[in-house]
Specification:
Pfam families: PAP2. This protein is an all-alpha fold. It contains 19 helices and no strands.
Length: about 525
């Protein structure tokens, strides 16, 4: 895969120039209670996986609990527990919040680190991140919203399938946790009746690390450090033996191979397009009597991912992308168009604190986890309250993030099919409250992402469905209030995002998890 994606805010270009070369990972390290599932979902082995239903995986038969190797594993745990340092206890506390939760945080951190578009060369051209040389400037990848949505989707979906497969082997071998087999092993995390072989944490670490080797090849040392930390945590906490860990990590890596094969063939590597593609979009727009979108940066920057619409969706076929494409935006000069344009100008002059607050909250621009990452944060903070099992955490995030990726595909399809200019291109004097993304206006990406996310989260947590949709509506309005989108962009984008979310809900209703 080679994804080379470009966008930059005119208003922040000077700032980005000074900081675009490198951005460190900023760990959130939020304090969460130790995961103690209200339901261990022992029947998750019957849930429908996403890609691995027909796959065959192997896990070695574990040693009996009276075998010398198992006894040696128990002694390793007791050796650690005898001399735990403060740092080791901090690691236990951090990871005990849940493997899927922590890896989702780490993924958001990596997206934010790489969400820095490269500055132009001296000759006015733009350098491209390269998977073949990820450590050269500009660092690979540039995690713009479509790329980020794809990364969240692949990692979450692979984690879910890996855990479904792990649950099958857990039930098959039914080996209890070390603290149940030896009274001298302390349980430094909440006890569970879930079989310990293979380790669910190691399964998640194995599948995630291998996916991230593809998605974030410049961060392998950091990723491997977190994997080693998580595996050691389970041993120190008395929750898994070394053999539980090894079996789980190996299984996770087997599942990752299935998803890596899909990712390498999903057409994301060609999403940047060519100059001929960009010229064709302009030609088609002009032939239809419309003003084509142009980059408002100086010099003009190539449009972001014009062929992302060709990427293979998770929730529906590629033919569905065109089938749910929204109708054309208002025609330039029409009464509806003029009304929307005047409203954008009025919004650009509205400096109310409420508008500024909402625009800032939902900006999700350079250096952030992007709009899909914002919705992952909202989801994670909600899921913590429900004490889900690891496999249900993974299933829920997979549904959310497959919808976010497919919403990106559908949104980018509309953007480049209509190639509609932004309000700031059409009328002088509009002063935006946020940066202007480097791609066409119709429909709003924030609105698509938010409609899809709110629909999925509203299904998963029905008592909060209205709250999530109110958030989505506010996110959509923020792009109008920031004066970078027409009202029509936002309203139609929200509607289209909801349609995408409904495909994820349909999958959820049929996957056997309810």
């Amino acid at each position: 895969m080679r994804t080379r994606i470009l966008y930059i805010s005119i208003l922040t270009a000077a700032t980005i120039f000074t900081g675009a070369c490198k951005k460190d990972i900023t760990e959130r390290n939020e304090t969460f209670p130790a995961l103690s599932p209200a339901n261990i979902d022992l029947n998750a082995d019957t849930w429908s996986p996403i890609l691995t239903a027909s796959s065959t995986f192997t896990v070695a038969t574990p040693d009996a609990i009276t075998a010398p190797n198992y006894i040696a594993d128990l002694n390793e745990i007791k050796s650690y527990q005898k001399n735990l340092t403060d740092d080791q206890r901090a690691i236990i506390k951090y990871w005990s919040a849940g493997s899927v939760l922590r890896w989702n945080e780490i993924l958001r951190e990596l997206v934010a680190k790489h969400n820095l578009p490269p500055y132009q060369n001296d000759d006015g051209s733009y350098p491209f991140p390269s998977a073949a040389n990820p450590l050269a400037y500009p660092l690979f990848p540039f995690s713009n919203p479509p790329y980020a949505a794809r990364a969240y989707a692949y990692v979450s979906a692979a984690q879910y399938d890996a855990l479904v497969q792990a649950w099958k082997f857990k039930k098959q071998f039914n080996r209890a946790a070390p603290y149940k087999n030896d009274v001298n092993v302390q349980a430094l995390v909440p006890k569970s009746d879930l079989p310990s072989y293979p380790s669910e944490d190691a399964v998640v670490a194995g599948v995630t690390s291998k996916m991230m080797e593809l998605l974030f090849p410049g961060d392998l040392d950091y990723i491997r450090q977190k994997v080693a930390e998580e595996k050691l945590y389970r041993i120190m906490a008395g929750a898994n033996t070394r053999s539980d860990i090894d079996a789980g990590e190996n299984l996770g890596r087997q599942v990752a191979d299935v998803f890596l094969a899909r990712a390498r063939g999903d057409k994301a590597g060609a999403a940047i397009g060519t100059q001929a593609d960009w010229t064709n979009f302009e030609t088609v727009a002009k032939a239809a009597g419309n003003t084509p979108w142009i980059s408002l940066e100086t010099p003009h920057r190539p449009p972001m991912l014009p062929l992302f619409t060709k990427v293979t969706p998770f929730l529906f076929s590629t033919t569905t992308v065109a089938a749910i494409r929204p109708p054309a935006p208002y025609k330039e000069g029409s009464p509806e168009y003029e009304k929307d344009l005047k409203e954008v100008m009025a919004m650009s002059q509205d400096k109310s604190r409420e508008h500024e607050r909402v625009v800032a909250f939902w900006a999700d621009g350079v250096g952030t986890a992007t709009p899909p990452g914002h919705w992952n944060t909202i989801a994670a903070e909600e899921f913590v309250k429900h004490n889900y099992s690891e496999v249900r955490w993974a299933r829920n995030l997979a549904l959310l993030n497959m919808a976010e990726m497919d919403a990106a595909i559908v949104c980018w399809d509309a953007k480049y099919y209509y190639f509609n200019p932004r309000p700031t291109q059409m009328i002088a004097g509009i002063k935006t409250l946020t940066g202007i993304p480097n791609f066409p206006s119709y429909t709003s990406g924030h609105s698509n992402f938010s409609g899809a996310a709110a629909t999925v989260l509203g299904y998963l947590v029905p008592e909060r469905a209205n709250d999530f949709m109110v958030m989505a509506q506010e996110a959509a309005k923020s792009r109008l209030w920031g004066a970078i989108h027409y009202r029509n962009d936002c309203e139609v984008g929200l509607t289209t995002g909801i349609k995408v979310g409904e495909y994820a809900v349909a999958r959820a209703k049929a996957d056997g998890a309810n």
